[in-house]
Amino acid sequence: MTTAQEPGGTLLSAADLHIAFPGRRGAPTARAVDGVDLDIRAGEIVALVGESGCGKTTLARSLLGLVPPTSGRVTFAGEPLDYAGRALKAYRKRVQLVLQDPSGSLNPRHTVYDAVAEGLRIHGYAGDERAAVAEALSRAGLRPPERFFLRYPHELSGGQRQRVVIAGALVLEPELIVADEPVASLDASVRGEILALLLRLREELGLSALVVTHDLGLAWNIADRVAVMYLGRIVETGTVEEVLTSPRHPYTQALLSVLPEAPGDPVVLSGEPPDPSRIPGGCRFHVRCQVLASGEAQRAGVADHCRKVDLPLLSGGGETQVACHWAVAGGTP
């Protein structure tokens, strides 16, 4: 498999990305992605983490070319993403999607062979289709692959169905996969196997991955770097060890506090879940922030900033960054 960049070079990049959806019947516009910079390097696994409704799936779909941005741009291997039909088809061969629900993404009337071969047929593959399907299934851990050719999805376990979905992505030899909650629908006993598979594919193929998840525990087990998203923006980013062992943003701290192994009591966030049609002024997290509610931000002298002063976008690179007045002022967990 060939890659567009040397290991460590930027493969996929979003710059000042905005995606807005007009409201129905006079409802306000939803700013689902409201200014995001994000880089993914060749051979790197990045976890994009946040609650439902934070914009992470919309961002991922835009990086795949499925949702054109309202403004900003996406580049791949240094070239701006072209949304014209032929160029976009070529791009989607290089960047593949793995969905969270294998039962929903596999046609129950198609055999495993047809499900994996579908991408080859769409892209007019001229090689040995049977050999390519067998290799993809084998790489995904379904061996011997011929034993699975004529099976249907209902004849497989949940873990096997997810491996078929991964094989369907691998058969086109992509350089990057976008995995949206790749183990959310699987039993705990199978989750580790699928995560180990993704890590092995990175080692064997140099494959890059963006893993979209609400689960910081999953990010810890698989990612090199993590980007925490809240209400359309990335609010904290850095290496997985730095962000998850020393979180600086109160939102990241709250997400981590509910993990079973976390010390102390879970942080229960007050207020409503994020609403992209009603983004508050100042720090967009301030209406639910436990640090502001507890008086810590007031004692640090930044409470007014939290309520009134917007924060700059974080850059998309690998350095550790946080969008939080309290953390920048020296606040500590």
From TrEMBL:
Full protein name: Peptide ABC transporter ATP-binding protein
InterPro entries per the UniProt record, alphabetical: AAA+_ATPase, ABC_transp_ATP-bind, ABC_transporter-like_ATP-bd, ABC_transporter-like_CS, Oligopep_ABC_C, P-loop_NTPase
Pfam assignment, any one: oligo_HPY
GO function term, MF aspect, one: ATP binding
Alphabetic keyword roster: ATP-binding, Nucleotide-binding, Transport
Similarity annotation: Belongs to the ABC transporter superfamily.
NCBIfam families hit by this protein: oligo_HPY
Domain ABC transporter: 12-256
